[in-house]
């Protein structure tokens, strides 16, 4: 193998190694993003449950009943 081919091969191997590292870094970051997204979705679900419970309490009151001083 000539020196020129060896240099090109070394360059390509370096480039591939850098791309693999970048892909792994992006994969790790994406996993973190999914974890954060799942946590946010769970929090939203809990908040919606609380809102529904509060709406149920509000809707459960009888608004047609006149106040006691009537």
Automatic annotation (TrEMBL):
Coiled coil: 2-64
Protein name as annotated: Protein SlyX homolog
Keywords assigned by UniProt, alphabetized: Coiled coil
Stated family: Belongs to the SlyX family.
Top-level taxon: Bacteria
Natural source organism: Denitrobaculum tricleocarpae
InterPro entries in UniProt: SlyX
């Amino acid at each position: 193998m000539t020196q020129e081919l060896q240099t090109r091969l070394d360059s390509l191997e370096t480039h591939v190694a850098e791309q693999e590292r970048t892909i792994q870094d992006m994969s790790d970051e994406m996993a973190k993003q999914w974890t954060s997204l799942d946590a946010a979705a769970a929090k939203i679900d809990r908040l919606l449950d609380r809102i529904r419970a509060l709406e149920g309490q509000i809707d459960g009151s009888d608004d047609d009943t006149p106040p006691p001083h009537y």
